[in-house]
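G.,

No rush on this.
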Amino acid sequence: MPKLETLELGDPPCSETPTGVTVKGLVVLARRCPGLSTLRVHLQAASLSAPPTISRAIPGARSAAPQRACSLRNLAVGQIPLPDESVLVVALTLAHIFPRIVRVDCDDGNWDKVMDAIRLSRKIIKCSSKEHPFLHPEVTVVTPP
């Protein structure tokens, strides 16, 4: 469904639903629905704690990254519990699958931490991709006498 833009599965999600979409399912959605911008879904948060396989790590394996960048910007997850120790891995996994994600609607404070971690990782990537000004030969460093 390449032209699908919004997908809302079930009622406002996850209030007491123990099962749902896995990280593998999210990857399939990202691959098959590149126009998807809003997703409301019951997630298996535990599956997000294990990052997707990267093809470089396993020769001959296909990458879990979407072949085309999915345009998903908004994700609604409801009341999925997320342990503190899983926040960073979940954030990096979601940012890897959905590189344009800007909002996670949730009823649990740890998902706010996920969005904070996604924002921070983007800032780190942005800073590390810029050249340091002292690496330019035309820049002269002047030290006080």
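When you get to it, here's the other one too:
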Amino acid sequence: MKILHVSTSYKPSFETGGVARSCYEMTTSLAKMGHDVTVYTTDRGENRVDAKKNSPINVDGVKVYYFKNISNHIAFRSKIITPYYAPIIARKVLKKFDIIHIHEHRTLLAAIVSHYARKYDVPYVVQPRGSLKYDKGQNHLKKFFDLICGKKILNKSSKLLALTSNEKEEFLEFDIPERKIKIVPNAINPNVVPENLKKGKFRDKYDIDDNTKIILFLGRLNKIKGIDRLLKALPHLKNEDYQCIIVGPGKKDYKNELKNIVNENKLEDKVIFTGALYGKDKYKAYNDADVYVLPSRYEGFPNTALEAGLMRNPVILSDAIPLSAELNEENAGIVFNGDVEDLVKKLNFILENKTHRDALGKTMKKLIMEKYTYEKIIKQLLDTYKLIIN
């Protein structure tokens, strides 16, 4: 099968968020199964991707086009994607694909590809990955894009892929027929965990002793992630023998906002901002953490929760995260209602109960291996592709 995936970011730009990582894992898994896989992406990243532009190169068995953005700074900071060369390639070769998979549809790259897909009658699926819902900060931009072409991209697709049942409901609010929607959750590759990972390496680096509890947040430093909730909960914990680790890239103004909360609450000795960590360094943090907290105000399907669970971390999620309902039902995670007071209660409980921490971590890993590995998810995806093509 000749498959095209479309994502504004791809390897090595994993700092842009979970979509780049998910697209990479999905496409390389398909390529290993013998499918002919191509990716249209851009050179967007914290630093512009250092690779041949506007022509295909082999990346781990996948043919990848890194289309050059006019400005990488604008593309990375504002997500305004300008792959000016993409129409030239799409016009020539798009008709050769059996099916197209578009990740996040409100981009110029998605608009270009979907246009030529319709022109050449090539079926395509769209996976918004949690970006469908309007939010306060970007309502006007999203609505304007939808008015111009966003709704057309959705309505003319062969199938719409929702990460969760909550996202399926969001599609229905956009008047999408239920028959067009299929739930395909995010997944994780168990082999991403480095071999021979030893306990204590992260603690040694930051001079944290074995008796100190590590509360870990890992993700983009963005207001929507609710990191301020976590920081405001810390002064109210019963046991003061903890260290809160905040891992991830973010804009300077929001970092300063978080540091102001730390200073106001006299938490300078309790909170460490490490910046972004990748690969083995990231898993060292998971490996030494006592609990992973994701206090988001809104989230699609967080890859970091799967990564933490794979490392048998107990996970605390806000109820704004759709995955939280399943974890709560399976006794694989703890859910708080979004209030700082409730987060304090849940943190106190998990930090004081090692037996429960261990049980949650074990159940979470079991759930991931049964439902959320790429081996399971790719089968669902291929069945969908084949149904559409046939």
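The first strand starts at residue 2 and ends at 6. The chain has a mean pLDDT of 93.

Enjoy the weekend,
O.
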